[in-house]
Design a protein that fits this description.
Blueprint: E1 2-5, H1 11-18, E2 25-32, E3 36-37, E4 40-49, H2 51-69, E5 73-79, E6 81-84, E7 88-96, H3 99-116, E8 119-125, E9 130-134, H4 135-138, H5 152-155, H6 157-160, H7 166-175, E10 177-181, H8 185-197, E11 201-205, H9 230-241, E12 246-250, H10 259-263, E13 268-271, H11 276-288, E14 292-295
Parallel strand pairs: 1-5, 10-11, 10-13, 11-12, 13-14
Antiparallel strand pairs: 2-7, 3-4, 4-6, 4-8, 5-7, 8-9
Length: 303
């Protein structure tokens, strides 16, 4: 259970309520109000939350922890309103059959709460100054957002919340296979959004190497990539962006000879090329092999 409260937290009472006969271990975390922040003396705090989202997101984090670590129960309570120095601002409790999972889940929950739950704190300094701080900023150094700790549920959490997507829509994206032909100005934008959205398998067909004149409008690349194949470099960038999708590089041009075998690997083809020959070739191949084709072009300021 995730809860917000504007009255003092009693850690002992919350720990007793968490008890579960299935568990042989209990790990808890207590976050207290300290008398300093970034070298400045603090005399009190205020916490403000957006309850409608905070409780939903906090509950989701607890559910993720149960599934990820195999624990028996998890709970978190966060204060809102005015707090004095020494007050308990947040409490996390986990009970589990084994201690290792309890420790890991407790650490996971507090970090995810700091990063994902809409809670802000206002530091009141002894000098009379004050300022609001997003709690996500407070966890920047403690939270490791590498693939080791990142979960697929967390990565897509905000997107799945959209009623137009939901869990079913996210699964459809996961099962999709899209080939992007052309990794230039248009292809770079398409790649970033489709990869971040969670299209399960994305192919990148691009025979060119990176030139200096590409850099100003193709943000996937850096000057260090000059002379390198765009397809492989773009694939590396997309794997770094989303570790939960499969990225396939095709550094050869589409031709009459290989079009059939290439299109057979994908459900949808996205044409981001800059020449008519390839566009007509892709159209012919898509019609012949009954593949969905989306074509686009840009020229200067026009699309």
């Amino acid at each position: 259970m995730f809860a917000l409260r504007d009255t003092p937290i009693d850690p002992n009472a919350l720990t007793r309520d968490l008890a579960d006969a299935r568990a042989g271990a209990c790990a808890t975390f207590e976050g207290w109000v300290r008398d300093h922040n970034e070298g400045r003396a603090v005399h009190r705090l205020e916490y403000e939350a957006y309850p409608a989202v905070a409780v939903t997101e906090g509950t989701r984090i607890l559910e993720e922890a149960v599934q990820k670590f195999g624990i028996a129960r998890a709970a978190c309570t966060h204060r809102t309103g005015a707090l004095a120095i020494g007050d308990c601002a947040v409490w996390v409790g986990v009970c589990s059959p084994h201690r290792a999972e309890a420790f890991a889940a407790c650490h996971y929950i507090i970090d995810e709460v700091k990063h994902r739950v809409p809670i802000w704190k206002k530091e009141h300094y002894t000098c009379g100054d004050s300022g609001w701080v997003n709690c996500e900023r407070c966890a920047t150094h403690a939270h490791d957002h590498t693939a080791t700790n990142l979960t697929e549920a967390a990565f897509y959490a905000r997107q799945v919340n959209l009623q137009e997507v939901g869990a079913a829509g996210q699964q459809r994206l996961r099962e999709a296979r899209v080939l992007i032909v052309g990794a230039g100005g248009l292809g770079c934008a398409a790649l970033q959004y489709l990869t971040a959205a969670g299209v399960g398998t994305i192919g990148i067909c691009e025979p060119d190497t990176l030139e200096a004149s590409n850099l100003h409008r193709q943000p996937l690349y850096t000057p260090a990539d000059l002379g390198k194949p765009k397809a492989t470099r773009a694939a590396e960038a997309m794997r770094a962006l989303n570790p939960f999708v499969t990225i396939e590089a095709h550094p050869d041009p589409v031709t009459h000879e290989n079009a059939a075998s290439l299109l057979a690997l994908y459900d949808t083809i996205l044409d981001c090329t800059d020449n008519f020959e390839t566009k007509f070739l892709l159209n012919d191949a898509a019609v012949r092999h009954k593949k969905r084709l989306v074509q686009a072009s840009i020229y200067q300021y026009e699309g």
